[in-house]
Amino acid sequence: MAKDRYNPEATEPAEPIRFTDKRRFDPETGEPRQPAEGEATVEDREAAAADPSADPLAEAERILADAPDESHEAPHAHEEPAGEDRDHEPALEGAPEVLEDPELREVPLGEAIGGGETEPAERIQAAEQALEDSGYDREAELEDGLRRVQAEYVNYRRRVERDRSVEKERVKGQLISDLMPVLDDIAAARQAGDLEEGPFAHIAGRLEQILTHQGLTPVGEVGEEFDPNEHEAIMQQPHQEVEADRIAIVVRAGYRFNDRLLRAAQVIVSAGPE
User: Fold this and answer.
1) What CATH number corresponds to the domain at position 252?
2) Which residue segment(s) compose the domain that 249 sits in?
3) 271 and 194: one domain?
4) Is residue 109 part of a domain?
5) pLDDT in tens, 236-267
6) Most Cβ neighbours (<10 Å): which of 17, 102, 153, 189?
7) Are 184 and 237 members of one domain?
8) Where is this region: Disordered (predicted)?
9) Is residue 230 part of a domain?
10) Higher model confidence: residue 2 or residue 209?
11) Is residue 34 one of the residues assigned to a domain?
12) Could you report the per-residue pLDDT of 18-31, keeping only the tens digit for each?
């Protein structure tokens, strides 16, 4: 049919193409159009929309909605008679099976922790007895720990006292080192004969006495054997009264504080008689 419509050689005339203009107003004049014969008006379409019965599809949906639901009546036919044991009902497919264990029951908290038969004091006593049976001596362990703490404390006190004594000696040695120039002046004045009598001689003697009491000792005397660890030899020359390798003259005295040498003595060493 479609081929005949567009085939110019067809013997039968082609079916004309028809168009239906549904515009309510004439596009040329702008006036409302009158519906053609057999065509539904706008009022007819609005009335059909308002009346569901006029629409066949709406009428079919209404009939299906009013039909009785047979699914609500089915359970009455499958009800079991009263008195039957419901334990024999078949389990749901895929549901886990629940087993009841007579040993699984609720117990008090105290019974669950301690067994419900023994008291805490009895359990403690049993634990102590087990420790004693295993050879564990709590008192011996405490005594050993106490002796260890006492020994550590004694060692600590000894270290503190030793450090304190060392610091004390260091401070004293520093003070005496600062007084050495004063002692050199006193020795030079005495050698010149200026401290034979008078108040200054008494003050100098008193100062030397205090320093000696604190542990200061002079180093280097005439006739003493030369010691390179304590004496600093300036020169060596012959001497008629002093033997060789002994101190002939003390140029500057040295000092030792307790066991520590503060300053070596500067001396002239004798080479012996000519």
Assistant:
1) 2.30.22.10
2) 217-274
3) no
4) no
5) 999 888 888 899 999 999 999 988 899 999 99
6) 189
7) no
8) 1-104
9) yes
10) 209
11) no
12) 666 667 777 777 77
Residue at which a domain ends, from 179, 196, 214: 214
pLDDT of the residue at 35: 62
* Assigned token pair, 5: 């419509």
Q: Which of 32-46, 71-85, 110-124 has the lowest mean pLDDT?
A: 71-85
Residue 118 lies in a domain: no
Which tens digits make up the pLDDT trace of 93-130?
554 454 555 555 555 555 554 454 557 888 887 877 77
Domain closes at, from 214, 245, 266 = 214
